Amino acid sequence: MTVAVYASxxxxxxxVVHQLRQRPEIELVPDADADAAQVSLVTVDSVDDETAALLxxxxxxxxxxxxxxxxxxxxxxxxxxxxxxxxxxxLRRAEADQDRLLRLVLAIANGEGVLPGDLLAKLLDHMGSxxxxxxxxxxxxxxxxxxxxxxxxxLVSEGLDTAEIARKTSYSxxxxxxxxxxxxxxxxxxxxxxxxxxxxxxxxx
Length: 205
Description:
Elements: E1 2-7, H1 10-21, E2 27-28, E3 39-44, H2 49-59, E4 65-70, H3 76-84, E5 87-92, H4 98-109, H5 117-134, H6 147-157, H7 162-169, H8 173-186, H9 192-201
Parallel strand pairs: 1-2, 1-3, 3-4, 4-5
Helix pairs in contact: 3-5, 6-8, 6-9, 7-8
């Protein structure tokens, strides 16, 4: 699996590269070939304008999926911004040991969303605040989602994986994957995490 590492600070980059280089599953690509990497891992202190610009550029590269190793999110808005820029998985830098980095990279490569529970709660709180301030609750509808799609996205927002959603809804895992893939494709989103953010922002779940 090919991985490109981006970092706001050379010292941060050296640390992540050192951890990943020891894993035989990972092939680190040189900067000149970074755009062709299967996984782009961005390591930063926080999501500022420069980081957002990089994430936005990576989002429009069809050959790569993006993960974020971050020191802190200063606000729910910064977290939302990262997800809207196409980040599919997040790991706190303080928790980024070799095993967690490997699990993060594998999840990204498999198209899975990874968001620590407290950050998911922070995102939900933030999106709820935006919804309350920008929308009349009486006007919220599920017009762009079927009831099944909305139900599955709600379960994703609660942190359930494919197998858990299948058990909860009595559908097969294949059906769950197909339904979520259809939502992501139809709404031109990047991944499940992005779909949850979109649905929350638009009052769809």
